[in-house]
Amino acid sequence: MSGSMRKRVMRMRGLIRKEFLQVLRDPSALGIAFVLPAVLLLLFGYGVSLDAKSVPLAIVVEQPTAETTSFCGKFEQSRYFVPHHYRSLHEAVEAMRRGEVDGIVHLRADFGEQLRRPRPAEIQVILNGVDANTARIVSGYVQ
């Protein structure tokens, strides 16, 4: 072992000894070191949910067709959403401003025609970004 390495080991031993003696003098340090992190882990483990359920969602259909009814039925059957139907996008935006819904799914009048094309149909999804985590989860569910 080289001289500088030996000095580092000696310093480390001294530091470990000093900390060990400090814990013997003040046992509350053990609580801070081990009990507090365990309590925080339990609190945040049960308190923070990474799953969104029963999210109020506005659905706006400009022109009801069999395709839009089938599409909206998926939201009706989902355990993740509680759909609320609105006649216009303006009404849905106002409902989101009032806090009645957390997101809006807007189906344009040509949605049925878009489904018949080889490209994917476009839908507009507007999310309330106040709770970014829920917005990200809802966005993933809608897709």
Could you describe the 3D structure shown?
With 143 residues, the chain is α/β, with parallel strands linked by helices. The chain folds into two domains: 3-47; 55-142, abc type-2 transporter like domain (abc type-2 transporter like fold). The protein is 57% helix and 15% strand. The chain contains six helices and four strands, in the order ααβαβαβαβα. It has helices at 3-25, 28-47, 66-77, 89-97, 111-116, 132-142; strands at residues 55-61, 81-86, 103-107, 124-127. The protein has a four-stranded mixed β-sheet with strand order 2-1-3-4, with helices on both faces. It is elongated. The termini are far apart.
Total number of beta strands = 4
The CATH architecture of the largest domain comes to: 3-Layer(aba) Sandwich
Give the C-alpha Rg: 28 Å
Q: Label the overall shape.
A: elongated
Say what the CATH topology of the largest domain is: abc type-2 transporter like fold
Major sheet: 4 strands, mixed
Strand content: 15-25%
Q: Structural class of the secondary structure composition?
A: alpha/beta
**Fourth-tier CATH superfamily name of the largest domain:** abc type-2 transporter like domain
Helix content percent band: 55-70%
